[in-house]
Amino acid sequence: METDLGLWVIPLAIIGGAIRVSTPFLFVSLGEALTERSGRINLGLEGTLVFGAMSGYAAAYLTGSPWLGVFAAAISGAMFGLLHGLICSLPKVNDIAVGIAMMILGMGLAFYFGKPFVQPVAPNLPSIGFGWWSDVPQVRAALQVNVLFLIGAVLAVAMWWMFRSTRVGLIVRVVGDSTDAARAMGLRPALVRICATAVGGAFAGVGGAYLSLYYPGSWNEGISSGQGLMAVALVIFARWNPLACFGAALLFGGAGALGPTLQSVGVSEGYYLFFAAPYVLTLGVLIVTSSPTRAMTGAPGELSITK
Amino acid sequence: MKAIGVETVHMTMQFGAFTALEDCSIKVSPGSFHALLGENGAGKSTLVKCMMGFYHATSGEMLVDRREARITDPKVAHTLGLGMVYQHFTLVPSLTAAENLVISREDAPRIIDWCNEHKKLQAFMARMPFQVPLDQPVQALAAGEKQKLEILKQLYLGRRFLILDEPTSVLTPAEADEVLGHVRQLCEDGEISVLMITHKFREVTAFADAVSVLRRGKLVGGGRVSDLSHADMAGMMMGDAEISKPAPRSGAAGAKVLELSGVTARDRSGLRDIQIDRLAVRAGEIVGIAGISGNGQMELMEILTGQRPRRSGEIKVKGTPYDATRNEARAHNVRYLPEEPLFNACAPRMTVAENMDFRSFDTNDRQSRFWLSGRNMRNRASDLVGKFKVQTTSIDSPINALSGGNVQRAVLARELSGDVDLLIISNPCFGLDFSAVGEIRTRIMQARNAGAAVLIMSEDLDEIMELTDRVLVMSEGRITYDVPTAEADIAMIGHHMAGHA
């Protein structure tokens, strides 16, 4: 039985959308934040996301366990990250060019190996209903929170703490900010970057598994609508801060739900413009927070497009 | 006494057939402040790199704390208590001072208890003669504070013998005096012994107690600083080479070339304003702007080069409004030598030839050209490289491979070629060895004598007194004092620099 909520549907749908849609953004942007903090850009995370979605779905179908699917997605993501990290450690290799190649490779491999899994149905990831206090079905639907979302939130806090208060975190920041200082300290920057890229890849793989195992919850070739690429932009938007990545992912998820919601409440004219809301929002925030006389704060010093 | 003595005995270092260091014996006694003097390429860096284990000496020995030591790599040097502060900062810019200190420790904990570490750091700082804010990112610190932090880091790591490689080349004279004063204090307290590479006599006489002089890889002299005069040291350092004297002044000032009226702009921090009510420079005169670093000189330079937007006011060159566009600069023959020329006047990764042709690559006499002429560019560049003695392996190597002095020479060569009517300069001699300093000052004087108007901003008061015809003092973003150099009184200038008008 549906209750008529009037215009309350809109904020409710935005909250629900924020929770449901943000998880892949969150995982990919956390992975990219880790990689970029170590001084590398991995643009291949879109490919890693799609491959993670495929391998996660396949593993879940073959073993019957969605968690084994998530695990398989993380492993395959780590493999992609490792490959990117190793290639970029060779002299005179540009990480952005390698990233674009890895993106295409990841998608191509996913489509090739994923053909037999388009038809079968794999078990979905569980979710927890936080809407038990309400009788309104829409509220209950909006507050169905997937376990991966919660893990992602914990991960964001853990990463923030890691960058602040652990040796590993400080080492990643040192390497990302100044290769010379890292060498003078006796660290091996290439090794740190390879590890950071591999772990970042694993996060992106998990983000992909969420797509195929929960929302939308099936494997097909159009499963990603560029979340992997948008998440890379989110990292800049969030100034490389994991907590801000979490906020940015929620904002993006919520803004993404605006178009479909307006359509469902009967706005027939121009609602499709709101499908562009997340992108307009990003542009707007970037313009407002930028300054022609100040350099961007928080950017790791070793990030460069000319390496 | 915590400080330890270090001695090199007959140390020789050969790279293939080239002998960089020959039979060099230097003794630094515990608690002394020992200066190592020499021109660029005299073997100072080779010697200290052998001491720190970056190079392995071909022959010779080292004594650390009167015991023979085999230093195979820098880690061994560190465990013996030897540390080095490099010419360029090795701090991580985005980390705070506290984070930099903790992560540089060999035994940095896996999980850092910041509460506890802060307490320990504060206790450590309380024992030190100087302080650095611990909670700010290093990139927000001034150069002098960074250098102090580098030295604090070495003490924090428990080093008892410090090598300082030209520690003041990135500092203003006031900052340099402060830092070296503290280092001397630490030596007197017996905390550390210091070996400092330098080519500034003033610092040697003011702070060091002993000196060794290297020339072409050989130890050519030394002794107690109190027994030696500047002339003695210069004699040892230069051998029989000539020191260029400042060129004589000739000609009188002409018409006004540069005029500023009512110029205001935001300063770097965004909190204060720069306000220049009136400033004029005439043809054939050098006007100097003295001031303590951070009082708006850098911003004024940026306004003049067009790097910083101005909020109000007018800049005129030869009576016409000037916005620092390329066409205007070309039409009025305005040339610049900004500070840090590698970043403010060069494209670091482009070649020496390309960088030296920035003024002329798109011109054909007075007309503009569409197709570049590679041959002309190379000819012009090799001509200038020869004339200004720019030392480079080839004009096709990237300009960031050159040493600081040679980048300075290359930019000066570019800016002084052709007719110059207005030359705007900022700290032209920071971090240069003194034969280069003499040469660059001579070139500036020649430009003045040829009728150019010259505006020079410098934190080196000696430089201003030597070069200029008129001195202005800048304080808190304003020009607070204006006097002909011939009538200037150093004490009065210092008074205005300190902001007591």
TrEMBL record, chain A:
<feature type="transmembrane region" description="Helical">
    <location>
        <begin position="68"/>
        <end position="89"/>
    </location>
</feature>
<keyword id="KW-1133">Transmembrane helix</keyword>
<dbReference type="GO" id="GO:0005886">
    <property type="term" value="C:plasma membrane"/>
</dbReference>
<keyword id="KW-0472">Membrane</keyword>
<feature type="transmembrane region" description="Helical">
    <location>
        <begin position="270"/>
        <end position="288"/>
    </location>
</feature>
<protein>
    <submittedName>
        <fullName>Nucleoside ABC transporter membrane protein</fullName>
    </submittedName>
</protein>
<feature type="transmembrane region" description="Helical">
    <location>
        <begin position="141"/>
        <end position="163"/>
    </location>
</feature>
<keyword id="KW-1003">Cell membrane</keyword>
<dbReference type="Pfam" id="PF02653">
    <property type="entry name" value="BPD_transp_2"/>
</dbReference>
<feature type="transmembrane region" description="Helical">
    <location>
        <begin position="6"/>
        <end position="31"/>
    </location>
</feature>
<feature type="transmembrane region" description="Helical">
    <location>
        <begin position="43"/>
        <end position="62"/>
    </location>
</feature>
<dbReference type="InterPro" id="IPR001851">
    <property type="entry name" value="ABC_transp_permease"/>
</dbReference>
<keyword id="KW-0812">Transmembrane</keyword>
<feature type="transmembrane region" description="Helical">
    <location>
        <begin position="231"/>
        <end position="258"/>
    </location>
</feature>
<feature type="transmembrane region" description="Helical">
    <location>
        <begin position="96"/>
        <end position="114"/>
    </location>
</feature>
<feature type="transmembrane region" description="Helical">
    <location>
        <begin position="190"/>
        <end position="211"/>
    </location>
</feature>
<dbReference type="GO" id="GO:0022857">
    <property type="term" value="F:transmembrane transporter activity"/>
</dbReference>
Automatic annotation (TrEMBL), chain B:
<dbReference type="GO" id="GO:0016887">
    <property type="term" value="F:ATP hydrolysis activity"/>
</dbReference>
<dbReference type="GO" id="GO:0005524">
    <property type="term" value="F:ATP binding"/>
</dbReference>
<keyword id="KW-0547">Nucleotide-binding</keyword>
<dbReference type="InterPro" id="IPR003593">
    <property type="entry name" value="AAA+_ATPase"/>
</dbReference>
<dbReference type="InterPro" id="IPR003439">
    <property type="entry name" value="ABC_transporter-like_ATP-bd"/>
</dbReference>
<dbReference type="InterPro" id="IPR017871">
    <property type="entry name" value="ABC_transporter-like_CS"/>
</dbReference>
<feature type="domain" description="ABC transporter">
    <location>
        <begin position="4"/>
        <end position="241"/>
    </location>
</feature>
<protein>
    <submittedName>
        <fullName>Nucleoside ABC transporter ATP-binding protein</fullName>
    </submittedName>
</protein>
<feature type="domain" description="ABC transporter">
    <location>
        <begin position="258"/>
        <end position="501"/>
    </location>
</feature>
<keyword id="KW-0067">ATP-binding</keyword>
<dbReference type="InterPro" id="IPR050107">
    <property type="entry name" value="ABC_carbohydrate_import_ATPase"/>
</dbReference>
<dbReference type="Pfam" id="PF00005">
    <property type="entry name" value="ABC_tran"/>
</dbReference>
<dbReference type="InterPro" id="IPR027417">
    <property type="entry name" value="P-loop_NTPase"/>
</dbReference>
